[in-house]
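Supplementary notes (optional reading)

For those who missed the lab, this is the record we used. Protein: MFS transporter. Length: 452 residues.
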Amino acid sequence: MRNVAPGSGQDGDHAAPASKFGAGIGRFRWRVCAMLLAATTISYIDRQVLGVLAPFLQDKMGWSEVQYSTIVTAFQAAYAIGLLCAGAVIDRFGTRIGYALAIGIWSLAAMGHALATGVVSFAVARFALGLGESGNFPAAIKAVAEWFPQRERALAAGIFNSGSNIGAIVAPLLVPVVAATFGWQAAFLCTGLLSATWLTAWLITYRTPDQQPRLSAAERAYIGAEPATAAARVPWLQLLRHRQTWAFAAAKFFTDPIWWFFLFWLPKFLHAKYGLGLVQLGAPLIIIFLLADAGSIAGGWLAGWLIRRGLSVNRARKGAMLLCALLVLPVMFAAKAGNLWLAVALVGLATAGHQGWSANVYTLTSDLFPRRAVASVVGMGGFAGAVGGMLISTVIGLLLQATGSYVPVFLLAGGAYLFALLVVQLLVPRLEPAALDDQPSTGDHTSGETTA
């Protein structure tokens, strides 16, 4: 799942160049960005603890495959619900308190896993974790809007969003060592304490630029130099009338669940297929998610390179998506891989393809919609992806319980992206922008890149 900074692209018409303010502007805003990066990293560590520990908790607790899928689904259901209301809550209470509420909930939920004793209690803890974590990206995006001029928002968003990949790498490095040394409860308590530590620092240090006493006058002027722009949200009912909305939602619905599968079932697969112990899981998972990080960067770069080479946005975007979909295709054979490292290579290639795909899918929103509609479209797509994740979790649980084989699951994962690309092509064959009823004749589309 993975999440982005909607509407954070550059707008050269209103951007105030740094040179106008001289060399001594200050860098306090980048400290804020570092805190957002840390929060995003922690959120992905927290959500992946269960996945890393799954094969051992399942043996200890006696969970069936369906019961484990129920626990995973609880997180995804809460995440979907949270995406519908998190933005409104954060707007109501402000970034400082809204973000604090979100991370406070997920910190308590993360530590609450240590008290769980069965399916119901784990599901309750996962539901609370998903509800809290759904506020991370809306709050971080709002903080970027408050602290960065428009010309720097895409960069700031890209930096904090990279925490999703960092967290996916840190979790298999940290969690097995803590669990093997102090017990599985300690792994949940440790990551929950990380969240609580961040929350304390956030409440102490975060203020809006106009209320931050440590901010220099020059940097405050630089941040506030651009004129305010209208930020009226486009109603969902209006957006649902456009096939462009359905194209983005379909792309998320069919492919986000594959990423959830990698996060929550991959350690179970490696344990079941190759007999890896708790500490032994670390190296394969780290390699897989390092490849995912590389894919995220390369996938976003490829479309831009193709456009600079003279291809239309339509051909460049879909060409990049096609290549990423083809990178995922060989994962169909992962369940039958003859040795561990071949399986790691196939899955790593697939995670790289997913992240490159996701970078381009999110950029579809700025290809197809004016800036003021991007946040709403991304929210709708995120909801669709979370619902797809709930469905795939149930299907995986039933398949594994009935057959004991990961073969059909990997077959499903390998073909999902090509199928999703076909749906996108049928709905938006030329990537023509949506003609919103109230859209100005001059348009306000942005082609700024976003990442997954």
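If you only remember one thing from this example: Residues 234-436+444-452 form a domain with the Growth Hormone; Chain: A; fold (CATH 1.20.1250.20).
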